[in-house]
Design a protein that fits this description.
Blueprint: E1 2-18, E2 24-45, E3 50-55, H1 67-79, E4 83-90, H2 101-116, H3 123-133, H4 137-142, E5 145-149, E6 154-158, E7 165-170, H5 177-183, H6 195-204, H7 207-213, E8 215-216, H8 219-225, H9 228-238, E9 243-246, E10 253-257, H10 260-271, E11 276-280, E12 287-288
Parallel strand pairs: 1-8, 3-4
Antiparallel strand pairs: 1-2, 1-12, 2-4, 2-5, 5-6, 7-10, 7-11, 9-10
Helix pairs in contact: 1-2, 1-3, 6-7
Length: about 290
């Protein structure tokens, strides 16, 4: 089974509190976009389990440290199934960017195994498996647009704002999620996103109102260790973006533009400086190709 596994953007991202388990309570609006990894999954039931992962990027792990591998192992364990599973990943989504590429790959594996092994788990069980693999995997499995709470596993759907034209730009340097959250002091956050207002702007398809509310409380922290984040944010606005924000813990930054022509012009301009620049639009989640 061949699938497209889309990247995600955090249109808003707020951190509300640190939980007793060490994770942080979040409130965020996420949207899947048309920048996708390609994931091929083959699976047959067997007398023993063997999971093989291949990627086109030599630096990526292909063992239990890979989220796609984790997803396959978790699915088989939950279902009590032995199977031979082969996973091949073509990476198009930059890693270390806050774009959720690993989560997207894991979601694609869960989607595929549920069909290929004729298990047909309901959404609740699939989401439970997904949450055990990674905080963003439940959303990656659902796709589209949603407000997420908890550590990202509590999802409330929003309509997909298909008319948005977005440019994503990732610098050469990446950022460690663990490092960024270790520097976060929740009590010292001075500005929070208007998540409710952004959600309403999406419902009303009001580009200007949404662009005004793009905001990520982690951006100043990432920018303090990766100043290129601040530079890209500025360059996106100079290129005509109505609003811009970092996604996840970075280092990718995105801007929302008034129309396709403006986004295309900005992407061309920025790509001359930043190799990983993409003009994208909102889309649904994992899909068969």
């Amino acid at each position: 089974m061949l699938l497209s596994a889309p990247a995600k953007l955090n249109l808003t991202l707020d951190v509300l509190a640190r939980r007793p388990d060490g994770y942080h309570e979040l409130s965020t609006i996420m949207q899947t976009v048309s920048l996708c990894d390609i994931v091929e999954v083959e699976a047959v039931r067997s007398t023993r389990t063997h999971i093989a992962v291949k990627t086109d990027q030599a630096y990526l792990p292909v063992n239990e440290r890979n989220t796609a591998y984790k997803a396959a192992a978790a699915f088989l364990s939950e279902c009590g199934i032995e199977a031979e599973v082969s996973i091949t990943i073509q990476k198009k989504i930059p890693v270390g960017a806050g774009l959720g590429g690993g989560s997207a790959d894991a979601a694609a594996v869960l989607y595929a195994l549920n069909t290929l092994l004729s298990v047909e788990l309901d959404g609740e069980r699939l989401n439970r498996i997904a949450a055990g693999v990674g905080a963003d995997v439940p959303f990656a499995l659902r796709g589209g647009c949603a407000v997420a709470g908890g550590i990202g596993e509590r999802l409330s759907g929003l309509p997909v704002f298909e008319e948005l034209h977005i440019v994503i730009c990732k610098p050469r340097l990446s950022a460690s999620t663990k490092t960024i959250f270790s520097k976060l002091k929740v009590a010292e956050i001075q500005e929070h996103p208007d998540t409710a207002g952004a959600a309403e702007a999406i419902r009303q398809k009001n580009i200007g109102a949404l662009a005004f509310r793009l905001f990520n409380v982690l951006e100043p922290i990432t920018a303090s260790v990766r100043p290129c984040v601040r530079e890209i944010h500025k360059r996106l606005l100079q290129a005509g973006a109505l609003g811009a924000a970092m996604t996840g813990t970075g280092t990718a930054v995105f801007g929302v533009f008034a129309d396709e022509a403006a986004a295309g012009s900005a992407a061309e301009r920025l790509k001359s400086r930043y190799e990983h620049t993409y003009s994208v639009q909102p889309r649904s989640g994992v899909e068969e190709i």
